[in-house]
Specification:
- Helices cover 33% and strands 13% of the residues.
- The chain has 475 residues and is an alpha/beta fold.
- It is globular, with a radius of gyration of 23 Å.
- It starts with 42 loop residues before the first helix and ends with a helix.
- It binds pyridoxal-5'-phosphate.
Amino acid sequence: MTDPTPDQTTDQTTDQATDQATGRSEPPAGAVAPPTRPEPLTNQGLFDRARAVIPGGVNSPVRAFDAVGGTPYFVARAAGAHVWDVEGRGYVDLVQSYGAVIAGHAHPHVVDAIRRAAGEGTSYGAPTYREVLLAEAICARVPSVEKVRLVSSGTEATMTAIRLARGATGRSRIVKFAGNYHGHSDALLAASGSAVAHLDHSEGATVPGSAGVPPGAVADTVVLPYNQVPVLDDTIACVIVEPVAANMGLVAPAPGFLQGLRDECTRVGALLIFDEVITGFRLDIGGAQQVFGVIPDLTCLGKVIGGGLNVGAFGGRADVMDHLAPLGPVYQAGTLSGNPLATAAGLAALSLLDQGAYEQLEGTAAHLAVGLQDAFDSAGVAAHVSRVGPLVGLYLAPTGTPGPVPAPVDYDGARAADEAGYGRFFHAMLDAGVALAPGAYEVLFPGLAHTPDIVAHVVSVAYEAARTLAGEDRA
Ligand SMILES: Cc1ncc(COP(=O)(O)O)c(C=O)c1O
């Protein structure tokens, strides 16, 4: 698919762009004169320029394609299920901003809400009506949330939920599970999934997941295997868990795991925190806690609730949330928290999510997962395609693994994945115009814009890519 708007692919600096407000098209005095004929942008050219001024050329590591090799595509624009790169090439996009976009890119309702909000000012540093509306919408839909605080990212949400749990219980130690990713705060990076999984090859021990994190920062982080209910004691402030693990491929909670965590936390007076940054408003209106019927004390949200803009949130029991400043002694703040554009986008996105939308998402994901599994099976590639509701995960087993390949249940199992094989499959798909996430531990995010025809196309491309992979493996 080629881009119908080729002018997107030329180099437009701010100086060159017409000033919308003043109508001025001349560059300001003293500005560097633009080239008379702008060079077309290329992915490689932009990556080279980016690497000169941005570490690794990207603002989030997975985007650099280190895990799969090659040059990242630089997105010029997106609509619905598609993105177009700066060279005008289109891709069916199964990344969807890692789940921040659920209704498709540039959904008119969301774009219109952002436009209208922008016209009224972009940030005030004072409370607004739409913050109240978004908080009410979250409290009305997520079973555990009686009060909620809006922040600007999932990382901020989990980091602050941990601080709150420590402040409310007066305890320091926290439990997290290997392969779960909760953003990049110091205490939570240990044994993290997502792109950190490509870096961290420590076995079991609680070690910092990144250089620059002092051992002291993880001294109170206890890392345990996913899907095993631990025996806790009264030194534990909280247990944080992805109720469906979506950063080590896709790993479903074993029957009884989430309820076991609930019971154990209650027994020792620890708080249970569900990190629903991915599952919130994606698995169902009330998130994983509604689907699995287990109610945490605190819930972290992000992604979908910002409609593609920067929003995170944490909320839960009112008595716990009331430990936050200005009511209580646990401090948290943010210049852009509850930003008017982000709350407008989030409210617009949530307004599109009724029960019919979740049924559609689940049907789309089922069609995709069955098709991908068939593609691997028919090519003789050892793989397991997992699905939980609308989330789909690929696990490519090491070559020669006898079938049928079981789904991984924990981080050790997930990390047996054939990362190089995933890289080859990824590129075969990308060459044919289907963009998966450039990392073996990310999941696929089919959304409301992925029509049955688009899914059928993706599956037919996957048949070919799986055959290519099988041919390479045999060579
Ligand atoms: C489960 C989970 N928690 C937290 C985060 C961090 O969110 P953010 O990238 O918005 O900081 C992510 C990001 O992917 C995530 O998947």
